[in-house]
Design a protein that fits this description.
Belongs to the alanine racemase family. By secondary structure, this protein is an alpha/beta fold. Helix content is 28%, strand content 25%. The chain is built from eleven helices and 19 strands. Bound molecules: pyridoxal-5'-phosphate (PLP).
Length: 372
C-alpha cells in the first residue's frame, strides 16, 4: 500500500517508551531468562524494523514473527539475533527458512518428514522449536507419544535439524480465574517428561504470563502487547504502571461548516442536525484502520471531546463540534496516554474488540513517525 505522506494523518511511536517497557520487564525476569520481542504484524502496527532495533537496544535477544517474510525483513535490516516464526510455515519453504537462519515452530511429525529430503538435498540445517498444544487448540503436539516420535526424528537427523526450542502458548493467562492456566501449565510439564535433553530455549510466557504468572518457568519470555505498553487483559487485571503505551494517532480538521436543522451527514444519512450546529471533517477512514463502527465515539479536537457523527467513510469522518474551530485544528484519535479518554483501551472497548486488533488494523497508508 502507498504511504500517505501528503496528508495530515500520522501515527507517532515513541521508541524510548518501548525501550523502557522492555527494560522494566527485564528487571522483573529471572537472571537466566531472555526476552524475545514479539514484532509480528508490523510490530503490532508500530513498525517492524524500528521497533525490533529499539527492542534490541533495550536488551531483547531474539524476535518472534508470524510469517517467514517478517523474519526475512528483519534479517535484511541487519538483525542477527534468533528469529522464531511462531506459525506453521509451508514445508516447501524450509530451505528458505534455513537460508535466512530463521527458527520455525513445528507442531507435527509430518512437517519434519516432508522437509527432511529438501534440507538433505540442499545440505541445510533448520532450527526447530517444537510447539506443544497444552490447551490453546491451535498448533502443536498434544500427547507424549507423538512428541516422542518427533524428538526421535530430530535426534536421528541432526545434520538437517537443530532442536533449538520447545514451547507452548497460554490461552487464559490474562484472566482472573487461573484454573485453565494451571491446567495448561501442568499439561506442559507432563509433556516435557519425555524430553530427555532440554533444548537451548524453553518458553511458555506471553505478556500476560510474564506479568501475572512470573513463576511459569522457561528461559525465554515472548513479550508482545506489553512491550507496547498495553494490558493483555483489557481491564480485567491491573498492569503495573511502569508499562506505558507508545503509540498515538493524530490528524487535523480539513473542513469546518455550519449545518442547518435537517441537514444530513454521511452515507445512509445516519445523522441529521437537530439545530444549527458546527461540523468538522477529518481525513481518516476505515481504509486507515479507523473502523466504521467508531461512529458515536469521541475524539479530541483542539482539546475538546467531540462525537463522530454519521458513518465513518473509507477516507474521512465527520465530528460534531461544540463551536467553530479553525481549519487545521489538531485531532487526536488515539492517545499514548494510558488514562486519556482516547486511550487505545477505550477505542478498543468502544469497538467491542481488543487493543491488539485496533493496532494491527492501522493500515500502512498512515505514515509512522518515530521519536527516539
Ligand atoms: C505464540 C505466541 N507467543 C507470544 C505472543 C505474544 O502475545 P502477547 O502479545 O499477548 O504478549 C503471541 C501473540 O499472539 C503468540 O501467538
Amino acid at each position: 500500500m502507498v504511504v500517505g505522506l501528503h496528508r495530515k494523518a500520522y501515527i507517532k511511536v515513541d521508541l524510548d517508551v518501548i525501550r523502557q517497557n522492555i527494560k522494566y520487564e527485564l528487571t522483573r525476569m529471572e537472571k537466566n531468562q531472555e526476552l524475545f520481542a514479539v514484532v509480528k504484524a508490523n510490530a503490532y502496527g508500530h513498525g517492524l524494523v524500528p521497533v525490533a532495533k529499539a527492542a534490541k537496544q533495550a536488551g531483547a535477544t531474539g524476535f518472534c514473527v508470524a510469517v517467514i517474510d517478517e523474519g526475512v525483513a528483519l534479517r535484511e535490516a541487519g538483525l542477527t539475533e534468533t528469529i522464531l516464526v511462531l506459525g506453521v510455515t509451508p514445508s516447501e519453504d524450509a530451505p528458505y527458512l534455513a537460508e535466512y537462519e530463521l527458527s520455525t515452530a513445528v507442531g507435527d511429525l509430518e512437517y519434519l518428514q516432508q522437509v527432511y529430503p529438501l534440507l538433505k538435498q540442499s545440505g541445510q540445517k533448520l532450527r526447530v522449536h517444537l510447539a506443544l498444544d497444552t490447551g490453546m487448540g491451535r498448533i502443536g503436539f498434544r500427547d507424549q507419544a507423538s512428541l516422542l516420535e518427533a524428538l526421535n526424528f530430530l535426534q536421528e537427523h541432526t545434520k538437517q535439524f537443530e532442536f533449538e526450542g520447545i514451547f507452548t502458548h497460554f490461552s487464559t493467562a490474562d484472566a482472573k480465574d487461573t484454573t485453565y492456566y494451571e491446567q495448561q501449565l501442568a499439561r506442559f510439564e507432563e509433556l516435557m517428561e519425555v524430553v530427555e535433553k532440554r533444548p537451548r530455549y524453553v518458553h511458555v510466557a506471553n505478556s500476560a504470563a510474564a506479568v501475572w504468572h512470573k513463576d511459569c518457568g522457561g528461559n525465554v519470555v515472548r513479550f508482545g502487547i506489553t512491550m507496547y505498553g498495553l494490558n493483555p487483559s483489557g481491564t480485567e487485571l491491573v498492569l503495573p504502571n511502569e508499562f506505558q503505551p507508545a503509540l498515538s494517532f493524530e490528524s487535523e480538521l480539513v473542513a469546518v461548516k455550519r449545518l442547518a436543522p435537517g441537514d444530513g451527514v454521511g452515507y445512509g444519512k445516519t445523522y441529521t442536525a437537530k439545530e444549527h450546529e458546527w461540523l468538522g471533517t477529518v481525513p481518516v477512514g476505515y481504509a486507515d484502520g479507523w473502523l466504521r463502527r467508531m461512529q458515536g465515539y469521541h475524539v479530541l479536537v483542539g482539546g475538546e471531546l467531540c462525537e463522530i457523527v454519521g458513518r465513518v467513510c473509507m477516507d474521512q469522518f465527520m465530528v460534531k463540534l461544540p463551536h467553530e474551530f479553525p481549519l487545521k485544528t489538531k485531532v487526536t484519535l488515539l492517545s499514548s496516554e494510558k488514562d486519556a479518554p482516547q486511550s487505545l483501551q477505550n477505542a478498543a472497548a468502544y469497538a467491542d474488540t481488543i487493543t491488539y486488533e485496533i493496532l494491527c488494523g492501522l493500515s500502512e497508508r498512515v505514515p509512522r513517525y518515530y521519536q527516539n
